[in-house]
Amino acid sequence: MSKPEASNDPFDTLRRLIDDWEKRIDGVANQVMGTDGFSLAMNKTQNLGLRVQKGVRDAMASHLKNINMPSRDDVIRLGEAVQAMEQRLARVEHLLEVTAKGAGNQGPRSGPPRTRKPPSQRGGQPT
Amino acid sequence: MSSAQQEAPDLGNRVRTAVDRTIQRSIKGLDYVLGPMTEVGLTPKDVIYERGTLRLYHYHPMADEVYRVPVLLVMATTNRGYVFDLAPGQSMVEYLLKEGFDVFVLDWEAPRPEERNLDLDDYTFDFIPACIRRIAARTGEPDVSVIGYCMGGVLSLIYAAGHTDGPLKNLVCLTTPVNWHEFGLLRRWTDPSHFDVDRLVDTLGVVPTDFILNGFEMLRPAQRTAGRIRVWDNMWNDAFVRSYRAFDRWTTEALPLAGEYFRTTMRELMWANKLYTGELRVAGQQIDLANIKVPILHTIAEHDHIVPYTASKPLLERVGSADKDELVLKGGHVSLIAGPNAVRRMWPAVSNWLAERST
Q1: Facing B233 at nearest CB: one of A11, A119, A127
Q2: Which residues of A touch B103 (CB under 8 A)?
Q3: Are B178 and B156 in contact (CB under 8 A)?
Q4: Three-state secondary-structure class, residue B250
Q5: Are residues B136 and A114 in contact, defined by beta-carbon separation less than 8 angstroms?
Q6: pLDDT per residue as tens digits for the range B68-80
């Protein structure tokens, strides 16, 4: 058996250490994070954060209502109305395209000819 | 010559290389820290359709003669589509264009708050069909091949199973999860016994980027730190740094998800595994993968830590296609589509497979 070639770079040991460190940390972390206890704790923390966020948002909405200003939900509702119009426009656009195509008014955009043959039919081997 | 004499110049070279690289690290490290973001997605294209979160790109052809059937790449909803076009020479789009394909990419922008109600139905029975109609109008061709990456593959599968008499001619899935019960840690963290998806979606509307990104990063918590040390070590190597920065930008630019879409994905796919069992219903239709009869190629990454091998492996056994192939490659979730193995093996394999079926 041939001896492994000596490395040319003095940083090689450091690189191997980093590779090992990464594997070990990922392995240990995955073991810990794979437990039910971790999932439970993570989701409890997340739920707490969401509750706080909802509380702050509700309080802010009520404050904005009191001073006669639109809340985030009001702005989102406006956005939804715009989105509905956008969808309706898309449907109209599609219908117009279908109608134009039916009337022969719209052809494909010009470009290279769509006649290319696969390598096997051109006498070549697939790469 | 004695071995001591031979080793002396060797040692000299090694010291010289080490000193040279240390100097380069210092000089280029400054560029790395202070320089602008790496430019990505540079292949020339037109945006031919945009609507809310959806963007459809048509890339300028790079061959004098193209295959009859255009190709639509469908990006995963969690990330930006420029992973298909990271940099010249590291771009699947550029490769396919040079091989003579007419290439379109369906990309996503962050869903706006008012798009929180977008659901699987919208993505698979509205967005994808709308894009395919536009491709047909632009090319004049009734057929299209679809390439879906990760969740983009799932959307493509649902589209294919729900439009069996549609214009789909070929389907390529890249590391696409089918058996969601094999998701390992991600499934454990989102177990219905302690993960309250309703509270999350009802409170936030749109599931934020941080939530998505943290979930992915927690799968390999040391990866980012180790990656930074490696990039410092390779700071003298311009190609390495360029590639690292492009990948780094892509992974950190994850997208938020529309709340209803996230809720359905959790309930129907992650918890009930309905894509696998054939019980999924989208837009009132039963989505059974066995209804997919078009030629299909599935590419799987052996060491994918996001979509595990066992989650994507069963795809071919579930579809009803007679013409089906599988390509298993070494590598991970991202390197599969833009890493060295992608350049050497995946892109040529996909191109050859499609070429035979695109006339």
Answers
A1: A11
A2: none
A3: no
A4: helix
A5: no
A6: 999 999 999 998 8
How far from the centroid of its chain's Cα atoms is residue B177's Cα? Answer: 12
Q: Is A10 close to B226, i.e. CB distance below 8 A?
A: no
Q: Was domain B45-208+256-355 assigned CATH 3.40.50.1820?
A: yes
Of B300, B271, B277, which Cα lies nearest the Cα of B290?
Answer: B277
Q: Which of A18, A39, A112 sits opposite B226 (nearest CB)?
A: A18
Q: Per-residue confidence at B220, pLDDT binned at 50, 70, 90?
A: confident
Q: CB count, 10 Å around CB of B12?
A: 10
- DSSP of B91-154: EHHHHHHHTT--EEEEEEPPPPGGGTT--HHHIIIIIHHHHHHHHHHHH--S-EEEEEETHHHH
Query: B68 and chain A: CB distance < 8 Å anywhere?
Result: yes
Lowest average pLDDT, out of A28-37, B26-35, B144-153, B225-234, goes to: B26-35
Cβ–Cβ under 8 Å, residues B320 and B292 = yes
- ipTM over 0.85? The verdict is no
Q: Is B115 touching A (CB cutoff 8 A)?
A: yes
